[in-house]
Amino acid sequence: PSKTRSKMTDVAAEPMPAARDDFITPKQACMYFKNFYSTCLLIFSIAIIMGLIFSGQTRIANEIHPALAFVLIWGAVLWLAMVEGGQGPIVGLPPVDVDLYKDTHPKTYLSTKITNKGDNLDRYLMGRQFMVVLLVFITNLSGAPLPNSVVFGFPPLV
User: Fold this and answer.
1) Where would I find the beta strands (DSSP E) of 16-104?
2) 111 confidence band (pLDDT: 50, 70, 90)
3) Other CB atoms within 10 A of residue 54 CB
4) Closest CA to 144 of 69, 84, 89, 67
5) Whole-model pTM?
6) 16, 32, 41, 123: which has the fewest C-beta neighbours closer than 10 Å?
7) What is the pLDDT of residues 50-63, one digit of tens each?
8) Element of type H or E holding 65
9) CA-to-CA distance for 114 and 61, rounded, in angstroms?
10) How far apart are CA 125 and CA 88, in angstroms?
């Protein structure tokens, strides 16, 4: 490497090495660990709940059929994700000028034209709350363990 002169100290200085693209920073390592750990916990939780459902240890699985509990819990969780995910844009777009996205996002423009008219937004939010309560109730009936349930031989604490 060629030596350069520093203007401040008039001492020979080595040029800085180029940044390595393959180096993982501590922040990235922490993020990768959190993602891996949370994915493992999610998979474990799903396995426990599905084990409860298919062994008939939830209310709907016990009283009706495990297949119905399976369909209801997944349907409710996916529907809940859509309800919660759709709330942000609907609530966040009213202060934005519609001309900014009228041509680029015509479907958004058409839906916000309906939701921002009169008291539609307030009515949507009220109805959304009832929907969330219903979906969480269905999820609880489908996936919550009955008293004294044992799944995969785990102790009751798990």
Assistant:
1) none
2) confident
3) 15
4) 69
5) 0.73
6) 16
7) 999 999 999 999 99
8) none
9) 40
10) 11
